């Protein structure tokens, strides 16, 4: 999917070197390219199984991956938990807003999701501002210090 500023595309093996610091699976961060590759293989299998969709967010001007986003739970129920991670050097430049807008549009219009939600740490101010900017509304305080947001109608 291509927007004005960014595109969303599948992660390739050639991308993994640049993504080690933001490569996660089950909340565990990769320490090596090998671990990132193993995690990406699990993510690809989850996609094939219909459980998740994971994209690289690509700057249309430089063609570099600046972060990742996707739907990681709930697709089997017509819902999607939207998550995202941005490489630190791209913070505050609007990349994640643009990428998440594409992901939300895909979720609503291509996947036909009835509900889109996201969870973040209650102290993660930038993530909370991002979600609110994207029309998410706080719906729950979770037990582990996280808060849940749902896309408003």
Radius of gyration over C-alpha positions, nearest whole angstrom: 15 Å
The residue ranges in which pLDDT falls below 50 over 5 or more consecutive positions are none
The tally of beta strands, per DSSP, is 9
Mean pLDDT: 90
Structural class assignment: alpha+beta
What form results from the Cα inertia axes? Answer: globular
- Distance from first to last alpha carbon: 23 Å
Strand order of the largest sheet: 1-4-5-6-7-9-8
Task: Report the β-strand fraction as a percent range.
Answer: 25-35%
Q: What percent of residues adopt helix (DSSP H or I)?
A: 25-40%
The largest sheet, given as strand count, sense and whether it forms a barrel, is: 7 strands, mixed
Q: How many individual helices? A: 4
Order of helices and strands: EHEEHEEEHEHEE
